[in-house]
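Lab meeting prep.
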Amino acid sequence: MNSEIKVCDLGIGQKEVFRELEWSLESPHLLSDLLQQVMSELDQYFFTRGRTYLSGQRKLLEHAARAILGAEEDPSVVIPLLPGVGKSTLLRSILKVLARQFAKSTDYATQLGGVIIVVEKTAEAYELRDLINSVGDHLAHVLEGPNDFNIAHGSCLRGEVAGYMDCPGRSCPDAATCPLLQSAAKANQTPFLILMHARYQAYISDLTPFRPWVSPTEQMRCRNLLIVDEAPALLSDNRIAISEIANLEIQISCLKPSYQRQTDYMKSGLLLQLGMQLRQPFHVLMRLCRERFGRLGAVDADLLKEAGFDWDALDSFTKQLAHYAGCSANSWIEKLRALRTGRAVFMVGQEKMLVIPTCLTPDTRNCLRSFILSGSASLSPELVSNPDFRVLEGKLDKSNSHLSIYIQHTDAFATSKTAMQRIGNRKALAAWLRYRLAQIPEKEKVLVVTYKSYAAELWNELSDFHDQLIPLQSDDGSPPKPYLPYFGGMNGSNQYRAATYVICAGLGRFEFSDYLNRALAFDFDGKSWNKLQQSCQQNAINDASELLCVKHAANLTLARDLVQLVFRSALRNHSEATPVTLWLVQPPSEVVMLVKSFFSDCVVIESNELPTECLIETAAHRTVKGKLTHAAQLLQWLKEWDGAEISVAEIQHTLKMTPTQWKEARKNEVVRSIFEQQIQSRRLGKDTLIRSANDADRTHIL
């Protein structure tokens, strides 16, 4: 770090008292002084940890801080800071400076009203709460419910609950005093409110319940700043099916007592309208879709009108439902509002359903300013292509030439989640991993990531390499878990940054229907919807995976996840140039292109080399109609054979093979290669291997 950078005294001293006398809300010194405090906090952090700023890094962080403190006028802004650049440190510095303003009740704090912070994990929420409250008492509150983390950290008063699944909730005898169950009641007592992603996603379009709070002087205030650490899912699929309509009917019927005449009258009217305005036209729509489409169809406004949907009547029903059910009806109100756009998808799965994918719109009412800090914004169309967001400049001029991406091509085995259900693919993958790990120097740390279902099995298969492998880390302070990290379950990016090798044992994918929803929800120019309509009109589609826009959405999502994954390794240390290697097995070519584009000057190397062990494991578990092939039976016998002399007839008897079946098994390419390898290794002729001089029917099958 530049030793000439001065770290300011940020305590409450004579300088700040003098400034407060000078300041007014219109003073140009206000923003610059707050910005100087934030940058001094950042400088102090870098100085105490012996870190140095990269070229352009300090300016990048300063630009982001200036926008958040008040220089940015757009209501919804995306700040694209790469993982490891200082995003979390910047957030802490800003919150510490803002906390001082609220502790002193300055004019700036009064104008700002309060701050809502959104984080992914409870551990992060606690850390930020403690940081803010260290500046002044009762400034921050975490709005949470029972989960494994906070229960493990003593938040359960009874001490008898081990995890979320054991929590009895409102039926607990101590529910009235439980800090977790009563957390919402304290949400309006502090200027800083910290939410988790899941709660924010449910209220992203209307944050009204979380904005007001009451100051110690009994004055009502409104939180006007929202900071989101990492972009949440901005997708809502708005599914409508007969089962969900039935659930709505049950909700209306059971929500209020029928013995009150006025309530019963309103309830009966709602149930009648539900049947006429929603259930009946939905049944007609499902029949029309089944006649015109296969398992997938594009439903437009004309088809909805043909089915009998009356928007004026539905508007009246929606208003009455909102009056009757309140907030509990919000999800259905959103579904019906989305349906009115006239862009829905008919799908046939367990039941026939209508899906209306939409991109969630951020709340901008009443002067709320929102900032989303994202490390992979360039691969997130819901951010960069969304007209509701403005994306700030966030590029760091940094070389990625020390990143090498190896692409393993193979037709011998597959590593998709479905393919991994077959033991042959799992055994072949384990053999490939052992082969690759044996080539990595022992001093290097390796991060192997796979599917949750097979994380323990593969960890056991790689027992010889446990000293090199990084097991699944926990963010609650407990010891590492005895299995491999898995897609979607890796908490704590910093806990994997020692890895110099990242190997993806599979690829974290979703169902293609999810990618269809993403393609249509984030279709801001209408091209994906038009392609879907054309394909359905021509009866040229029966599966979402056939659409190019869906494949692109799938590849874009996968590329973004891979970028986040590789940044968990030593690549996160931007001040270093430690070589980092990423191995991918048979990824789609577009995914490789997107990842390479993100890391610009990284090196991509393709490999077709496969160890013989992979081929053996694949062939040894190959089945036909549920039964092992003859070659597979012979290979499995060879794997267990102790090398003792045995006759061909004895082998055939053991495996219950006829001579013809034996001949078929011996013709297998893998079986033949094993014989040839043994011939070369023993320097024996074929006749010597097949029969000995003493017994024409004896052989060494090695």
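Slide two material, second protein:
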Amino acid sequence: MIQLAVILIYLALLITLGLAANRLFRGTAKDYMFASHSIGPFLLLMSLFGTTMTAFALVGSTGQAFRAGAGVYGLLGSASGIVHSLCFFVIGVPLWRLGQRNGYRTQIQFFRDRLDSHAIGFLLFPILVFLVIGYLMVGVLGGGAVVEAVTQGAFEKSGMFAASGYGVPSAIASAVICLVVLVYVFFGGMRGTAWANAFQTAVFMVLGVVSFVVIAGAIGGTDSFTENLRIASSQVEESQLTRAKIPKPLFFSFLLIPLSVGMFPHVFQHWLTARNANAFKLPIVMHPIFIMIVWVPCVLLGIWASGPESGIADALAAMDPHDRGNAVLGLLVSTHAGPLLGGLLCAGILAAVMSSLDSQFLCLGTMFTEDVLQTGDSEGRDDQKTVRIARTFVVAVVLATYCLSLVLPRSVFDLGLWSFAGFTGLFPLVFAAIYWRRLTAAGAIASVIAAISTWFVLFYRSDFGGNPRYSFPEQPLSLGFLQVPPLHPVVAVFVVSAITLVLVSLVTKRPEAATLEKFFGGSPQN
């Protein structure tokens, strides 16, 4: 019950933070959705990093390292650190400048203006909402799984929740997490979200390092941290310490996954909150370092969990194979940390989960009010009505996400990969919109349709993300006489999208000169 009490106190603290942010609320839609563009370098760094670190990074990476070994860090940890910063510089800074110049509030407004087409907006909105909800499910499932694992035995005396080991069932835990995030997003808006993200980022980074040291000491059994690292690593199979379990084609195909950050709607909205272009410098430099601080301990914990001294082998063996990956981190914490520390470490994990959920919830509310209900001139808007509609849509999204998480439970890692693959398929669109004058509305629309159609076909064939043969293929795929190397589906989605965008743009009417001059200046060129 001590772990549960600590978790509840932490959640109450987050609600208090959101209510405090509400006291500074200026009553305008601009302030609710963008904090009046007042976010400086440090808060931008913390909020951007917090919103990209989800249950996928903590719960998912630990579970996948348990199955596939150290190569998981190379798959996404190191690649994400570099590619995310490049996206902040190559995509984020130009979009911030265009947003400041033209008053954009969402991605869709940028694409509508750049391509002089309302059709692209009506096409993108449901696709982005669908992909974001898939991403939201990663946090909801991951948070619930961790709370269930950490609180096992808390209700043993009362006999409650026997099916979940007398811990809080993941479904109930997920519901509480959704409710808490909803409260501080509902009242605090972007300012409350940014404050909460900064606070939660600091919490999960500090407590993540603490959990790593504590669990290493419990497995190693000595007073020397370096000796504990050596002992814990020596207890696992050699293949767990290398990239041996990950085929080279699969490994390199994962390099496309981090490009997804360039099309995350919630990251775009955080970019727009920056006070000036100089605010991007700190996130660009520090983001790779922060990712290393989080990912290295999580991957090592997953590796050690596969050893005989991890203390969780029996608990994992009794679980459904699809649920094991989600439970590894929570079981390690509950097994090797005391009640108080275990509660604190669980709070740190929840901090990472919720620091992304809040931004995404708020972003979808912004997109709905800006891109569906208000497609015309923004002058004369009723700000109170706009904020009220945004909040209502956020509530609807939270309910939809939670219900879907109950009927479509999946591995956090696999589900996250499918969501990222969809956003990566849209990356050629945003890159071309910024840097290629010859991009046409027809090319953009065709690219989006091709990308999402390819994604849906592969997602359906994978049993809606449940078949690891697609999300993490280890053997070549035989298509008649053709042997396809083991590649993640993101390769097909990205290539189809990029080729379609280029070909259709080249054979359709070039954009109007006035549109190009607005974005690029000068005369239109290929």
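Talking points for slide two:
DSSP finds 21 helices and two strands in the chain.
The chain has a mean pLDDT of 81.
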